[in-house]
Design brief:
By secondary structure, the chain is of the alpha+beta class. The protein is built from two helices and six strands, in the order αβαβββββ. The structure holds zinc ion. Keywords: Metal-binding, Nickel, Zinc.
Amino acid sequence: MHELAIAESVVASVLEHTGGRRVAVVRLRVGRLAGVVPDALSFCFDLATTGTSLEGASLELVEEHARAHCRSCSCDFVVDDPILLCGCGSADVQLLSGQDLCVTSVEVL
Ligand SMILES: [Zn+2]
């Protein structure tokens, strides 16, 4: 499962930075087009933290709108689904953000 791989890499990188201290909260910013199902990610996070110093930590997800730039009319717009189409009707658009996922903060006990 895609979310399990993501959860495992998040847990691994948090462990790397917290050095075994108990972690209470992990905050993640997730782009709308990152292809992540928040509920599935939360479930996998619980699995991935079992037996680590992150066990029992809560995962807070902040979804971020994707943004794109239209090369035809030069406007920037918000994208909420994977169909990249500008309001002017052009599909000649470049995705600026929304595919990334990053840990924004970690609270240790
Ligand atoms: Zn346009």
